[in-house]
Amino acid sequence: MPNQPLKRIQFYTTLALALVLLCAYWSDRRLEQKKERPWQVRAYIDNYLYLAKEIRQYDKIPIPITLAVAGLESQWGRSELARQANNHFGIKVKPGWQGHEYCKSTQEYQGSQQAVNIWACFRKYPLIRRSYQDFARFLDEEERYQHLKKLEADDYVGWAEGLQNAGYATDPNYAQKLRGLIWKYRLSEFKAK
Predict the structure, then answer these.
(1) Which end of the chain is more exposed for a tag (fewer CB within 10 A), N or C?
(2) What distance lies between CA 14 and its chain's CA centroid?
(3) Contact 105, 84 (CB under 8 A)
């Protein structure tokens, strides 16, 4: 009879330990699931990672930056511009552009945080590959992006800030959004080898 309280204490201690371990396991599983990329992002990366690698090889643009810009600008390939014009980088028509164009309403930021709707024409490509190639060419030929070439090979933070500071987009939070996508979807895993 004197062993009964001791056995009860051992039973409840074992039960409590099992519950703590079970809670820890489920907590880890939930954290793991939060880290998983949504299917749209996974599908986009599966389809276009090879293009980001190609331009990394030839033009030295970090793969995480290419994927983040393309993902943000094209809504992971689902935006109107991506579907109708194969434009995954939101590059607008400028004087000297000799290709096709696709015009639509878009938002631009004026001043600090004020977004306004405007009508703008964007470059239209026959193939998505051309959009990726033109992104690299655009950054290479525009003088305002030349400072990016001096950054470390995989300095995606510097690239994000540099793109925003050079005026790639009018969104005052553009660099923060790029860094957020890189972190959230673990795009920094895709580094040059």
Answers:
(1) N
(2) 46
(3) no
